[in-house]
Amino acid sequence: MPAHSEQQKKFFGLVRGVQSGKVHPSKVSADVRKVARSISSKDAGDFASSIAELKIKKAVLSVLKELHEPMYLNELETNPVAKTFNQTGEFEEYIKKFQGLPISPKEMEAIHGFKETKPTKIERTQIRYETTDTFNNSITTVIKKLREGSQILFTAFTKFSQTKPEEPEEQPLDPNSPPAPDEPTVEEPETDEIVVTKSASFTDDIKGGAILAEFLKKLDL
User: Fold this and answer.
1) Are 52 and 1 in contact (CB under 8 A)?
2) How far apart are the C-alpha atoms of 159 and 176, rounded to whole Å?
3) 130 three-class SS
């Protein structure tokens, strides 16, 4: 089944780039990242080059239907994602800057009702998800309920950790050669690419629970 448009070819080209490590996950949309975890790199390559079998098409369309990918389906009447942008910094220190509000029982129902991925840790003011995909890339997402002015919204902070290739083993030194001088060790501060995703705002717990239920589906969890 060939890709129907240049937009779709580009989409699956990005999927393959994420899978191969040539494109950093933080540089693409959540939909690209989710599809990258859902199909093999061969299937993504087949789509990108317009040579895909019917069974591949069905598998991918099933994923995209769940994501409400705008290339194929109409957007929800109310998009649960209001804004997405990137930041840099040490992940844990960055998220400490934001004081979360307590998660309500109604909102907690939405978290427990999300069957695709279970939280690794639930706290009073934040929810943490940690997963590793089939390409050994780790994803850490922390969700907090924040107040911005008169509005309340959910904010997800996501960090992607890509597996580094193994360094070659050091060759043994010639015993007759003079010892090499010790090089000073300089520790550089850790810098992470952080994707910040903000939900639509709400004013009560019932609407907050409904928005959170849809918001979780849009994230990399």
Assistant:
1) yes
2) 48
3) strand
